[in-house]
């Protein structure tokens, strides 16, 4: 996603052996939620998607952290965000007491540290971040860019994040007030270059392309069935409603993520495809509170996500 000069590879609907997907999943030790993920480079010649899935414990509370990071201008920014964002978040002194502020601070700090670490290199490198943080009965979704979070509540698909696009009225106004411009170049782009209006990195456009997340909180109750986080490699070809409908009958999140990934590929998605699904198990008798070790493969490119089950 993102840059005007992104290169696409073969349009064949057959995955090569080198592009074989990685998938995995796990279950929280208290049995309240399970998760699964699937990721592949798709028809792209390079892999710029990353993901992270973690289960941690803070002050006796089981914490779930899940994220999808879609890079542009190379993989460096997405890899950095994957490696540092959640670590910065859980170290925040107000993570439990003021989680929303902690998330906003962690996004800002991670962006600043990435820009410092890169110096004058990789000036075009940037990344989206669509993340979900589970703290008790609270689900906090934070988003920068055009990866997306969708929940199924009461059988209905509900977007809990907004794609940050330069042609949105408020985003365009913010960019122009900062001295930038938005123009059409195949799609609406900041400075005629970047197709998202918020991102980590993007040093040359940083004055206009901010890493300020929009954060939405949802209550985890019996009506909340599952959450889907995915890069635009899915959402470009599958609607929110279609994704929820496909996942709903599939109890295992890993299998649901693989189903969506394959569907996006077969529908002709021209981008990397990465999906994380979290299923809430409060009323699910098919699962029992036994912690399992994540089954991710570390051999899939450099995009395999960390998963810690305590």
TrEMBL record:
<keyword id="KW-0464">Manganese</keyword>
<keyword id="KW-0904">Protein phosphatase</keyword>
<dbReference type="InterPro" id="IPR036457">
    <property type="entry name" value="PPM-type-like_dom_sf"/>
</dbReference>
<dbReference type="Pfam" id="PF00481">
    <property type="entry name" value="PP2C"/>
</dbReference>
<dbReference type="InterPro" id="IPR015655">
    <property type="entry name" value="PP2C"/>
</dbReference>
<dbReference type="InterPro" id="IPR000222">
    <property type="entry name" value="PP2C_BS"/>
</dbReference>
<keyword id="KW-0378">Hydrolase</keyword>
<feature type="region of interest" description="Disordered">
    <location>
        <begin position="291"/>
        <end position="310"/>
    </location>
</feature>
<protein>
    <recommendedName>
        <fullName>protein-serine/threonine phosphatase</fullName>
        <ecNumber>3.1.3.16</ecNumber>
    </recommendedName>
</protein>
<dbReference type="InterPro" id="IPR001932">
    <property type="entry name" value="PPM-type_phosphatase-like_dom"/>
</dbReference>
<feature type="domain" description="PPM-type phosphatase">
    <location>
        <begin position="34"/>
        <end position="280"/>
    </location>
</feature>
<keyword id="KW-0460">Magnesium</keyword>
<dbReference type="GO" id="GO:0046872">
    <property type="term" value="F:metal ion binding"/>
</dbReference>
<dbReference type="GO" id="GO:0004722">
    <property type="term" value="F:protein serine/threonine phosphatase activity"/>
</dbReference>
<keyword id="KW-0479">Metal-binding</keyword>
<comment type="similarity">
    <text>Belongs to the PP2C family.</text>
</comment>
């Amino acid at each position: 996603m993102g840059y005007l000069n992104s290169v696409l590879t073969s349009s064949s609907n057959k995955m090569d052996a080198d592009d074989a997907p990685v998938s995995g999943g796990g279950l929280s030790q208290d049995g309240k939620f399970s998760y699964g993920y699937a990721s592949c480079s798709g028809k792209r010649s390079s892999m710029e998607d990353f993901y992270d899935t973690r289960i941690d414990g803070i002050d006796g509370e089981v914490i779930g952290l899940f994220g999808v990071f879609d890079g542009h201008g190379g993989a460096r920014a997405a890899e950095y965000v994957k490696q540092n964002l959640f670590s910065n978040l859980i170290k925040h002194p107000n993570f439990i007491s003021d989680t929303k502020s902690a998330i906003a601070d962690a996004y800002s700090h991670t962006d600043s540290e990435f820009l410092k670490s890169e110096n004058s290199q990789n000036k075009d490198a940037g990344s989206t971040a669509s993340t979900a943080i589970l703290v008790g009965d609270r689900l906090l979704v934070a988003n920068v860019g055009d990866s997306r979070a969708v929940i199924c509540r009461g059988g209905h698909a509900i977007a809990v994040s907004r794609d940050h696009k330069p042609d949105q009225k408020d985003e365009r106004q913010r960019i122009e007030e900062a001295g930038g411009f938005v123009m059409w170049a195949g799609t609406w782009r900041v400075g005629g270059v970047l197709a998202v209006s918020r991102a980590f990195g993007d040093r040359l456009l940083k004055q206009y392309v901010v890493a300020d997340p929009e954060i939405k909180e949802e209550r985890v109750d019996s009506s909340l069935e599952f959450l889907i986080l995915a890069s635009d490699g899915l959402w470009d070809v599958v609607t929110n409603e279609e994704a929820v409908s496909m996942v709903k009958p599939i109890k295992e999140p890993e299998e649901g993520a693989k189903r969506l990934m394959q569907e996006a590929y077969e529908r002709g998605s021209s981008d990397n495809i990465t999906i994380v699904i979290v299923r809430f198990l409060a009323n699910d008798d098919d699962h029992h509170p036994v912690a399992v070790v994540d089954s991710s493969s570390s051999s899939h490119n450099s995009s395999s996500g960390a998963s810690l089950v305590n």
